[in-house]
């Protein structure tokens, strides 16, 4: 739920054993409401990730009830696109969650490292993300905070969603206002901004914004504050990615358009429906298979080597809690290119490259692959025709030969 920053100071929890079972090791990252550590399950001798919540939540009965309920619900989900939840508990003053340890990094770190992605790489990210979300939606669960920080990429190329259920648990805590909007400004659906409520279609909207960012290197809305960014989607549509970067196929423009419709009824009903449309696009464009690389420089990799110190200079993009009363008045006549819209940009634009290769090169590579496939199809058909003609000629002249 909370995007994490590499934490370079020793933590007082390092070395502590939670619940007599989980040893806390290196701090991977720190956020506003929780910290994530490498850990070791002493009973099973298994590396794990430990998300340890802030101590202020320990005495909140509403939070603990929701926290336990969401953890049990997510632990029942089985899908390759979801980070597995093993256990949850309360040790002293710290609620904690025990999860699968993903050696690699986040999608945010990959974007910072390599910039926008070509369509086939975007499809490779989306397939497991939508698959994991589809499993959750089928079970009646909604993530509420889909963004690149919550998409993990392993060193083996596995893509998984993390932090299911934590947004709702925090939102229902007594220490938060009863009238809050919780999430990350750049990815909130209009209904989350308006009412704080959402369903599977809210996750679809967030995925649509993320697709726009993967293709272009930036999020669609900017403003003078995170609140203004969140509020803009109430009156503005997400523009087509092709308007921001050349070479984006029309099918991806249509995918983003449907996923980010301001009216939830105009969106894909859930992640499964969006995944079906993605499959159609992959077939239409003949997109090649792609193995998503883990970022080389990541908080996870840095924490694996306790002697390495990685300086993080990127501005954090924390999950925000703010009252609807704090929302600025919005002028419907505001010019899209006004100064207020350009002062605040959580995710700055990158050049049109991926892994150091211009995006247009991926397009031409796909065209060459298509031409090569067409050549071989024609060759096979020609050879088959010649073989058939030869067989027919031989059969017709067989009596004469005998």
TrEMBL record:
Residues 296-347 are annotated as: Disordered. GO terms for biological process: negative regulation of fatty acid biosynthetic process. Residues 328-346 have a biased composition (Acidic residues). InterPro entries: Kinase-like_dom_sf (IPR011009), Prot_kinase_dom (IPR000719), Ser/Thr_kinase_AS (IPR008271). This is non-specific serine/threonine protein kinase. It catalyses: L-seryl-[protein] + ATP = O-phospho-L-seryl-[protein] + ADP + H(+); L-threonyl-[protein] + ATP = O-phospho-L-threonyl-[protein] + ADP + H(+). It is found in: Cell membrane. Its EC number is 2.7.11.1. Its main location: membrane. The chain crosses the membrane at residues 373-394. Residues 22-282 form the Protein kinase domain. Keywords: ATP-binding, Cell membrane, Kinase, Membrane, Nucleotide-binding, Phosphoprotein, Serine/threonine-protein kinase, Transferase, Transmembrane, Transmembrane helix. It is a single-pass membrane protein. One of its GO terms (cellular component) is plasma membrane. Residues 299-321 have a biased composition (Polar residues). It comes from Mycolicibacterium gilvum (strain DSM 45189 / LMG 24558 / Spyr1) (Mycobacterium gilvum). One of its GO terms (molecular function) is protein serine/threonine kinase activity.
